[in-house]
Amino acid sequence: MRAKLTYFLLAAVLVVYFALVGTRGVWLIQDGRPVTVVLGIAVLVLPLIGLWFLWQTTAFARNANRLAKELEAEGGLPVDELVRTPSGRIDRDSADVVFAKRQAETEAAPDDWRSWFRLAVAYFDARDTPRARKAMQRAIALHDGKAVRA
User: Fold this and answer.
1) Mutual orientation of helices 34-74 and 113-125 as an angle, nearest 10°?
2) Listed residue (11, 20, 10, 16) closest to 43, CA to CA
3) Is the pLDDT of residue 97 over 70?
4) pTM, whole model, 2 decimals?
């Protein structure tokens, strides 16, 4: 719950920031001189890119949570079998062992969104966020019946 609250607070701050930057872009365009109009358009593009990125990130998180809830209802969420250090961090060797199991599971059932979801969690636990995100995107696409690129 704390992570959700933090996410929404930061998202709200970003939206306010995008609005402030956007108004500056409009002011530059309203100035009317060719240089300020071009600069104003460029300034307006930045909040649009930011809003698109925020939208995509929020949609990804919603879809991943939807899959997690469905998997939890089926009793298929991965069990936390990771060894932790006294400070609570995941032991790297432990994460590698669990990752190997999840990778084998995914190779055995490459069209099962559940195995891709569990692989994404294993990637995340192994601190490989880019691959975790790609695996989760694949799980979402398989779940929703969309074409998946290899």
Assistant:
1) 110
2) 20
3) yes
4) 0.77
